[in-house]
Design goal:
The termini are far apart. 38% of the residues lie in helices and 36% in strands. The protein has 138 residues and is an alpha+beta fold. The protein contains four helices and six strands, in the order H-E-E-E-H-E-E-H-H-E. The chain has a single domain, classed as YehR-like fold (2-Layer Sandwich).
Length: 138
Amino acid sequence: MRSQKLILGVILGSLLLTGCGNDKKTLSCVKNDDSGNLQMKVEYQKDQVLKQTLEMKIEQENEENAKLAKERVDELIGSQYKNQSQTTYESKVEGKNVVVTLTIDVENLTEQEKESLKIYDSFKEEKESLLDDGFTCE
């Protein structure tokens, strides 16, 4: 009986210390360049990337130009992602800005899809890739 209590105590203690292993974290990165303002959020657990969300804000001179730019962005970027099962693509015009949001469910991509999208499973590799691409992360 005493050893059962000890074993139960050790199990409960380890669960409390590890938080049941469900520590999802988010890395936020930003990049400002000629194409606009980019924000990337990488959701991960341990070293495994689960999901990525990219928000791109492209400023135009006026709302009419923003509408035209949205059409071009939808043709160039949206056409690549709209038909993929593990991605969500949205674009909208907010005043004179085009706002594009792309969410990728990384943990459910095939290896071939990850390779074609240049996405890493490993959080460490993905973070290094973002830093190499000029993002600043916290």
